[in-house]
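Researcher: Let's do a round of design. I'm pasting the structure tokens now; please hold your answer until I've finished.
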């Protein structure tokens, strides 16, 4: 191997983290207007099938790409700091933000959700909400929210801790390099993903609703985490991903569209299970997932690997945006429930409100304060960071939050 210098910063991953997190805000702005049940805290009376398609497409690749980057940086941490340093870093960067996020956000999001439910069904929603609280149902409704991502990541990191040397031997083997080099090598990973999708309810990635994710969810995301770990061990071959690009992203979108059609057939047949449609969903989801994430990685490596203050800032803010965008979105979605605007207009309005608020709070309060130190590893001055020379030492690259 000819590894990158120890201080090298992976600027392409900065761009991926920042842009994928903004895409996550767009995803959750759409979920309130989806026809799918129980996918967001609120269910607006105005819905759109376009929202369904957008959600299914983004869900195909966004979190898998995050887990690839999480595995990449987990391997980096394990190599540089050893098992003890790896454990301390993951506890500080994952467990503490998880606990803080649960305490800060769950009460508001749950109460807003219950109020919205009564608002659509009862002329006195406040009175019904008070009765709901008096019945003690708040504590019985605890769930991990969107923070289930951190639970899965912590469990994968905990599993990687004792398996670190074995993973180096396995993922560092020549077979991984050969798969990177061969044009069809990615199909092996797509096949592994399809195998993990077959036990899912609809053949797409399930979203855990409990604090102990199911084995099938852990297995599905472990594939992406392992690929990212192996990618770090073969980081001198990152350039192999440059051959993927816009064509792969387009092909992935077409596969996602096919998967959406298969999901539609499954939902139309409920409660019966349609095995051909289920298998087709798993197949096209797996293909769409890997084509899209590899295509986006290739674009980032070819176009955005030189680094820029803008992408660095977007990457620094990604953890904050991931953690705290739901209450900001709900704060604007709740009053819009009484408006008869088209769903697409409401989706855009949510973004226009939430994105500036999130970045204003980040720059004014989070980035230079104690919360920024927790999320970013250190306090940072307000505004865009200075331009770094290629390969310059960058603590945020060495102390990743997990590529959330």
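Researcher: That's everything. Go ahead.
Model: Designed sequence:
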């Amino acid at each position: 191997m000819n590894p990158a210098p120890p201080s090298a910063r992976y600027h392409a991953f900065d761009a991926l983290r920042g842009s994928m997190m903004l895409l996550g805000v767009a995803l959750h702005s759409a979920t309130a207007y989806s026809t799918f049940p129980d996918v967001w805290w609120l269910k607006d009376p105005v819905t759109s099938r376009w929202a369904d398609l957008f959600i299914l497409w983004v869900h195909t690749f966004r979190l898998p790409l995050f887990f690839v980057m999480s595995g990449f940086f987990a391997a980096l941490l394990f190599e540089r700091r050893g098992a003890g340093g790896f454990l301390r870093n993951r506890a500080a960067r994952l467990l503490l933000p998880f606990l803080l996020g649960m305490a800060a956000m769950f009460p508001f999001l749950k109460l807003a959700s219950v109020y919205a439910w009564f608002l659509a069904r009862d002329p006195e929603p406040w009175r019904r909400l008070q009765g709901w609280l008096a019945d003690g149902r708040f504590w019985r409704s605890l769930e991990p929210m969107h923070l289930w991502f951190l639970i899965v990541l912590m469990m994968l990191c905990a599993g990687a801790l004792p398996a670190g040397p074995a993973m180096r031997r396995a993922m560092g083997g020549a077979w991984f390099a050969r798969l990177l080099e061969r044009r069809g090598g990615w199909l092996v990973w797509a096949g592994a993903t399809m195998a993990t999708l077959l036990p899912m309810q609809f053949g797409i990635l399930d979203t855990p609703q409990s604090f102990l994710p199911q084995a099938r969810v852990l297995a599905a995301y472990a594939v992406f985490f392992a690929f990212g770990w192996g990618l770090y061990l073969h980081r001198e071959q990152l350039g192999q991903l440059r051959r993927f690009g816009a064509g792969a992203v387009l092909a992935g979108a077409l596969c996602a569209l096919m998967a959406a059609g298969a999901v539609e057939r499954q939902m139309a047949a409920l409660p019966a299970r349609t095995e051909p449609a289920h298998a087709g969903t798993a197949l096209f989801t797996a293909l769409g997932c890997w084509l899209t994430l590899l295509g986006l990685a290739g674009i980032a490596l070819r176009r955005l690997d030189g680094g820029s203050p803008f992408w660095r800032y977007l990457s620094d803010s990604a953890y904050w945006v991931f953690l705290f965008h739901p209450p900001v979105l709900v704060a604007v979605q709740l009053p819009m429930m009484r408006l008869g605007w088209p769903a697409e207009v409401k989706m855009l309005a949510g973004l226009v409100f939430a994105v500036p608020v999130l970045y204003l709070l980040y720059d004014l309060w989070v980035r230079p304060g104690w919360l920024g130190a927790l999320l970013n590893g250190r306090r940072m001055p307000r505004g865009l960071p200075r331009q770094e020379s290629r390969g310059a030492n960058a603590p945020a690259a060495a102390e990743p939050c997990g590529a959330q």
